[in-house]
Structure formats: structure tokens, C-alpha cells
Amino acid sequence: MMNILSLWIFGLLFISSSEVHGLSSIPENFVLAKELNGLAILTCNSTPDTAITWKFNDVPVENEAFGQYTTQNGPDLNLSQVDFTMFGNYSCWSEGRMLSSVYLLEIEEPDSFISFINSMITLMILSYDCIFNCNWNKETYSAARAGLGEDCAKRLKSCQWVTSSGPVHGGGFQFQLSHSLSPYAEENTKLEVTVEAIDDLIFDRKTKKFFLREIIQPNSPKIAKCEDVGENLMVTIEPPSNWSTPHSFFTLEHQIHYRLLDNNQDRFSSSTLIPKTASSLRVRSRDSLILSTWSQWSPWKNLTQ
Fold first, then answer.
1. What is the pLDDT of residue 126?
2. Is RNA-binding among this UniProt entry's keywords (predicted)?
3. CB 118 within 8 A of CB 208
4. Of 57, 152, 164, 250, which is least surrounded by CB within 10 A?
């Protein structure tokens, strides 16, 4: 009975500790380590001759059960044989004043399958605008941020991170990133996006390289009008309102999906002329030069009175 009670109390203490010291946002300063015999070096923001003491979650490191696996080298704290009990917030102190703090986070094991990494980060741009959408599709994380360019890929201080306002419907996070490429110039170099995410004290990071032309997907076009032309209907299709201009340069090709009145058969046409016997239709578009991803279909338009 006492053993069961002891385990129950330990479980409550462990959960309480996780809630207090867990993270819901990515900290400014952190060091990554692997669990199971990992190594880590934590640096204190101090001068070399300053007398330093280290705390882990506000408790002196030497009082922790893992104190035997820590050694101090000047102002730095070296940790060996890192396990799950050692992840959390470390702070260095001198004469009762905190000089700096840093989180030790567990790094998620890297994925070996490129297809899986690509599925975690999905990208889309609706036109040749300077803004594109980036989605992080992994549901288990509580916070994430994204950045564009080499500075973010290398985790330099100059990276301009973009945060998400929160999880999107269905899980994951969405970001809006901006680029400086000219829509009139040929793309020769891929862009690189980096996404970092955190769940409690577990950190994940993925990068993806791409050309803008690979992620173009226009919004749905609009059916402007249908006019009689002999035995056919001439369908006038307007590009989406946010598609790049001039339309004579950024050309779209359209596809019409229509149903015949007499037998309800589905037909598809790349011509804007369809039979008068069509009872309803819808349309979609894509960039005609690069043959981009098709847009979503427009709503069905009923042609019968």
C-alpha cells in the first residue's frame, strides 16, 4: 500500500514539475541535446574572473540528483549523460544576482525520409506576390516559428522569425512569409524556409528548399458570363481577383467541368466553347507557362431555368 502511495505522490510531483517548467513558446536562449548519454555546454553571460554558481529550475545544480554529471569550467557548465530529468531552465548567478539563463531542450530525432519531411512543411502562394503561406503540419507542438533564408537555416541572430498566432483548424501552424524576388525575373536559386517547433521541452526543426514556381496555386476563377454562339455556349472566365497583373503577362489556362442535361454525364473542356446542352458547369485555372497546380474548382453554376 505504501509503495502504491509513494508512486502516486511521485507521479503528482512529476506532473506538477512538468507543468511549471514546460514551455508554450520558443525561448530566446536555448541549447539542444540528445537524451541518453548526450552532452551539453551551457555558457554564462559573465566575465572570466566572475565567481559563478548555476541553478536548475531555481535549485542549485549541486543539489540535484544529476549533480554528479555536471562540471563547471570557468563560467560554463558542462553536462554529460543527459537524460530527461536534466532538460529545463538553467541560470547562472553571482553575488545573489542572475546574470543570464538558458534552456536545455531535447532535440527531436531527425527524420530520414525526405517525403515525410516535405509533408510536414507545405507551401503555397496564390500569385506572384511577395507573400506566401507556410504550414507546419505536425499536431503535437504547442508553439512554432518560421523564417526564410540562410540566416534562419543557420540559426543566426539576424534571422527574422515569424510566429504563428496559434494552432490552425485541424492541427499545426500557419505562417505568412515575404520574399524579395522579382516576379518578372527567372528563378535560378531556390528559397529555403526553416520551421522550428516546441512541445514542452522537446524541440524540432526542419528546413525545405523550393522554387516559387513549384508552390503556385491560384485561387478559384470566376465564371463571368455564358453567351450563345450557334450550337454552343461561350464561357467567359475571369482570373481570381488577387492574381498577378498584367494578365497578358501572367497568363492562366482554364478547364471547364460541365454536365449534360439529357444524361447527366460529366465532360471536361480546355476550350471556352461548350455544348448548349450543358446543365451546369464549374471552372478552375493554373499558370499556363509553368503548368502550376490547378486551383480549386469554382462553385457550380446552374444553366437551366
1. 92
2. no
3. yes
4. 57
